Amino acid sequence: MLEVSGITQIFGGVTALEDVSFTVAKGAITGVIGPNGAGKTTLFNIVTGIYTQTAGRVFLKGSDVSGLPPEKLARLGMVRTFQNIELFGGMTVLENVMVGLHTRSSSGLLACSLRMPWSRLEEKKIRAGALKWLEFTGITDLADVTAGNLPFGKGRLLEIARALAVEPEIILMDEPAAGLNSHETSDLARLIQRIRDLGITVVLVEHDMELVMDICDRIVVLNLGRKLAEGTPREIQENHEVIAAYLGDDT
Amino acid sequence: MLKFLAFAGMILLAPLYFKGGYLMNVLVFVGIHTMLAIGLNLLLGYAGQISLGHAGFFGLGAYLSGVLTATYGWNPWLAMPLAALMVGALAFAIGFPILKLKGHYLAMATLGMGIIIYIVFNETVELTGGPSGLSGIPNLAVGSLTFDSDVKNYYLIWSFTLVTILLTLNLANSRVGRALRAVHDSEVAARVMGVNARLLKVQIFALSALISSIAGSLYAHTMTFVSPASFGFNFSVELLTMVVIGGLGSIYGSFLGAALLTLLPEFLRAAQDYDIIIYGGLLMLMVMFMPGGLVRGVPDLFRKLLKKGGANHA
Description:
The complex is a heterodimer of chains A (251) and B (314). Chain A is α/β, with parallel strands linked by helices and 251 residues long. Helix content of chain A is 39%, strand content 24%.
């Protein structure tokens, strides 16, 4: 589904990522973990077209998508969420998710200004589609709340609902459990599994080890900008290099 | 829709109340300014992109219509859409490089653009008449009906303004309007959702310029005379003030802002030379105490007062 090949990113004189390669299998949940400063978020920003890498390629469904902007990637089936949730704060919860259906609709400036019959029909479809994802994430009752007024945990669910509305084939989540309490985190784990069950490939950057070990099919470990290890949760837990990176290497 | 019909009804009946007095002339300007404020609001209030040069697009529409009709004898009804398309296309071309900029840099770039257009009006004397202006612009006419009185112009201008209001309300409540607000709130998230933010910003900049140009053409044919002084930096700031005072991201707010800033000087004749100071002061006060503009701030104020009243009774 997704292949990252030889990604190197240099900011000024700092090498944030060095020759990182891995592949993400279709329909699996893949976790990217690593200590602070390992380059996880940088990697995400490159894969999702926010940054352009210094070297290396990104392949989505076998085709080279290196350097494509996020709006193009969305149309190719890739979407992401953000660590510090990026909601459309002035819009309602429902409207936020309706923006997620942007690529599934096509009425332009003129058709919308004139409220052409087909654009009104499309608007109905957009609304229905958005409601479906609100229900999937369990926030239907918040549909008319202004997104900026949501508590953090609900905001995170909204961001996921909005991303799902794009009907992606792959979703990348940047620390989805950050700022959530343990109850919310276990709900999130179930939600992510339900997303996988829809056939959507999931990649997450996460600090919450319990969550990662619990739901991921495969794990990629980064440390100091390099790939340290890759494998199943069990393999990673038993990997000495990984343990050393997390606990210090005095052993 | 009901709200719009009520508003349109009020506008259409207003001349009966004012009986064609001096105020009719002022209300013609409220109409033109409403169109301009809506145009700028699409850009500033919805898409969140500033322009300090919109008086330039207004002026281009006015001069293109003026020169084509007064100098080259074109039919005004032909000159107006052509001017609008030319100004829209120009804005589209300028928009691509300058809308890459954000915040203060975009403000500076659009400011520069407005000033350049202003200088062109002043310097191309053989075409525009330079600082002394261009006169002899014909009134618009339909058959034997010539729009040459305040009441006739009122209906002419307000037909355009009402259509602008209706179309922009539709736009605001559509897929495109949502995408604009999304870009405003978080450009990166909007892009992740598949919104081509760059193209959308340029499109709305062009649409905004096109609306300003039509307002400019209407202005030229109503006044029959144009001069550069009407299209300078001060007027760009005045437009910005209308949008902010009325309410960012509200079409009816633009009408309120335009009405207030057009009517106010009529009552403050003595303070004429200080208008820019008054606008600046109003802008600061609004941003500090009513950041949502009149359209949201006034109902809020009433609600607060009612609550207070209720508390006193209890």
